[in-house]
Amino acid sequence: MVQKTNTPPDSPRELYEIYFVFACVWAFGGALFQDHLIDYRAEFSRWWSKEMRAVKFPSQGTVFDYFIDSDTKKFTPWSERTPRFELEPEVPLQTVLVHSAETICLTYFIDLLLQSGKPVMLVGNAGVGKTILVSDKVAKLKEDYMVAKVPFQLLHHLGYATACVREASREEGRA
């Protein structure tokens, strides 16, 4: 994130602060989610904006809706990086990735991890687009990357089976 190309050694302190705040927001709040009752990301965003006033985020949306534009050095909505979608008739629909602000954000962080030589693992419910997103990224990678597919459904089923065995054991203990 902070590199000599976007933050030369003679950069003002405020520029480093913007990158530091951006990193903190994603380090502390990036894994938060919305459940049926509470949107934890929105709660975190409200708390951050209220408590951390040294660096101001735009007032619309949440702190997670913005990235630091490398040219302007200002917070810019992820949605501004979303490419225009054009459906190619010969491509199977199940392999099509329609980018959104969320996928652009995820791709940004995947790119940062890959550029740093770090492994990437996406976790989420079935059908949210992890495979399509990774497949799109892998198709654009150079040949000097090694890609491995691991069937985590097996781990999910083993975890479910273990939970069933535990529940059965508890029920037997009550009888």
TrEMBL record:
Domain Dynein heavy chain AAA 5 extension: 6-80
Keyword list, A-Z: Membrane, Transmembrane, Transmembrane helix
Pfam families: AAA_7, Dynein_AAA_lid
Database matches in InterPro entries: DHC, Dynein_AAA5_ext, P-loop_NTPase
Signal sequence, renumbered to the chain: none
GO biological process annotation, one example: microtubule-based movement
GO cellular component terms listed in the entry, alphabetical order: dynein complex
PANTHER family: DYNEIN AXONEMAL HEAVY CHAIN 11, DYNEIN HEAVY CHAIN
Protein name per Swiss-Prot or TrEMBL: Dynein heavy chain AAA 5 extension domain-containing protein
